[in-house]
Automatic annotation (TrEMBL):
Statement: the UniProt record of this protein carries the keyword Metal-binding: no
EC number: 2.7.7.-
InterPro entries: CTU1-like_ATP-bd, CTU1_C, Ncs6/Tuc1/Ctu1, Rossmann-like_a/b/a_fold, TilS/TtcA_N
Species in which this protein is naturally found: Chlorella ohadii
PANTHER family: ATPASES OF THE PP SUPERFAMILY-RELATED, CYTOPLASMIC TRNA 2-THIOLATION PROTEIN 1
A GO molecular-function descriptor: nucleotidyltransferase activity
Protein name: Cytoplasmic tRNA 2-thiolation protein 1
Domain spans labelled Cytoplasmic tRNA 2-thiolation protein 1 C-terminal: 292-322
Alphabetical UniProt keywords: Cytoplasm, RNA-binding, Transferase, tRNA processing, tRNA-binding
CDD domains xref list: CTU1-like
Gene3D superfamilies named in the record: HUPs
Functional summary from the UniProt entry: Plays a central role in 2-thiolation of mcm(5)S(2)U at tRNA wobble positions of tRNA(Lys), tRNA(Glu) and tRNA(Gln). Directly binds tRNAs and probably acts by catalyzing adenylation of tRNAs, an intermediate required for 2-thiolation. It is unclear whether it acts as a sulfurtransferase that transfers sulfur from thiocarboxylated URM1 onto the uridine of tRNAs at wobble position.
Length: 447
């Protein structure tokens, strides 16, 4: 028996919608998805008429579908937006040059102008040159820090009012989960925001916040959209590793799990704060540091000099580890790599989350620091299990970080702070595949 589309009841169903399990025909699927995104945009008032909106375009499925859909909805509903594509060329031969060709075709297909800014222009280095200098272990730290700034700078240079990114519901659910696992109360309170940087000159919006990744893929597939699907050659592992797989498992058991995770975070309120400027520690409100500006480049930064400038200084002086790791003796292994990435991402122009450190679970301590009998040492390697204090040996303290500024420099804080900027790369205390898969920049950067 041929199953009919449950919406129009006249056409044959060609798919079962992942989010609702409804059998739909192609046209009804397009209509349902487009209407949902339109309702998301309208309900959250993402755009105002006349705004100039940069669509962050990587050539991948999310940003390609976003460009297609915003163009369609802008015309259909008269948003009055001045849309353009904004791409960052990291200078990765065999990857970015191919995906940029896709974006160039998108420019013609969607009839919206494309602006490309390269790392070489903005920083003087391509990623290929950076990898040649630093190797393939910390390269993603550089890429992640540089890309976030590059999008903002590029958008500002071409007079954008807003940046729209292709982050989908799966991405947001993963971030919610990572923040729960980290005990990062302040970020949990705001990671599901559909608009970030609302009071900054260049807010970022996520029109696909409730759109399932599977449906984006289906939409692109059935519409035969032209997108690029190869992974970055420097990031062979799946982004966000463990959390990503877990969200997929939850979805398989119950498709609503993704949207429920997002709704949970939306309901979350930080006691004593708005969820964006303070955190609570045992009921006490703690003010987060207010971001200032980098003394060198002027980019928003909670430190006197922003992370990009520190990384760049290291590269230019031939000291590529500068700014990547803060510990003198860097332990080896995937967890250590994750911690280093976290350290590097921590100061990426965002509040360093002093409050978050106190809330964070025990993380790998700093190598070489004994807990002096106050806690349980985790051994000289981050992979060794916790054990009684070594009483002054060369162990790693597993004490929770103290309050305030000191806490912000501890790896726990760094791991926590990395959450928003690098897609979970700082997940140091999960010494397993999450750490192996940690990758600061595999996904487009977002809050
Ligand atoms: Zn139909
Ligand atoms: Zn700077």
């Amino acid at each position: 028996m041929v199953r009919q589309c449950v919406h129009c009841t006249s056409q044959r169903a060609v798919l079962r919608r992942p989010k609702t399990a409804e059998p739909l025909c192609r046209e009804c699927f397009y209509a349902a998805l487009e209407q949902e995104v339109h309702e998301t945009i309208s309900a959250a008032r993402l755009f105002k008429p006349g705004e100039r909106v940069a669509v962050a375009a990587s050539g991948g499925k999310d940003s390609t579908v976003l460009a297609h859909m915003l163009t369609t909805l802008n015309a259909r509903h008269g948003y009055g937006l001045d849309l353009f594509l904004l791409s960052i060329d990291e200078g990765i031969s065999g990857y970015r040059d191919d995906s940029l060709e896709t974006v160039k075709r998108n420019e013609a297909q969607y009839q919206i102008p494309l602006h490309v800014f390269s790392y070489k222009d903005l920083y003087g280095w391509t990623m290929d040159e950076i990898v040649a200098a630093v190797g393939t272990k910390s390269n993603c730290t550089f890429c992640g820090v540089f890309r976030r700034q590059a999008l903002d700078r590029g958008a500002a240079l071409v007079g954008a009012d807003k940046i729209a990114t292709g982050h989908n519901a799966d991405d947001v659910a993963e971030t919610v989960l990572l923040n729960i696992l980290r005990g990062d109360v302040p970020r949990l309170g705001r990671c599901a925001n559909i608009i970030t940087g609302e009071d900054s000159p260049l807010p970022r919006v996520k029109p696909f916040k409730y759109t399932y990744e599977k449906e984006i893929v289906m939409y692109a597939y059935f519409k035969k959209l032209d997108y690029f699907s190869t992974e970055c050659i420097y990031s062979p592992f799946a982004a966000r590793g463990f959390a990503r797989e877990f969200v997929k498992d939850l979805e398989a058991a119950r498709p609503r799990a993704i949207v429920d995770l997002i709704r949970s975070a939306e309901q979350f309120r930080v006691p004593g704060g708005s969820g964006s400027g303070s955190s609570s520690t045992g009921g006490k409100a703690v003010a987060l540091p207010q971001p200032g500006n980098c003394q060198r480049c002027g980019y928003i930064s909670s430190q006197p000099v922003c992370k990009a400038c520190i990384l760049l200084e290291g590269l230019n002086k031939g000291l590529p580890r500068l700014g990547v790791s803060r510990t003198r003796r860097t332990p080896k292994g995937p967890a250590a790599e994750a911690a280093a990435a976290a350290d590097a991402a921590a100061a990426n122009g965002l509040p360093a989350a002093a409050g978050a450190a106190a809330d964070a679970p025990l993380a790998r301590g700093q190598a070489g620091t004994c807990c002096a009998g106050q806690g349980s040492c985790s051994g000289s390697s981050s992979r060794q299990p916790a054990q009684p204090c070594c009483a002054g040996g060369t162990c790693s303290s597993s004490l929770p970080a103290a309050d305030g500024a000191a806490a912000a420099s501890a790896p726990a804080a760094a791991a926590a702070a990395a959450a928003d900027t690098n897609g979970g790369g700082g997940f140091a205390y999960l010494q397993n595949k999450a750490a192996i898969a940690s990758h600061p920049s595999a996904r487009q950067l977002a809050d």
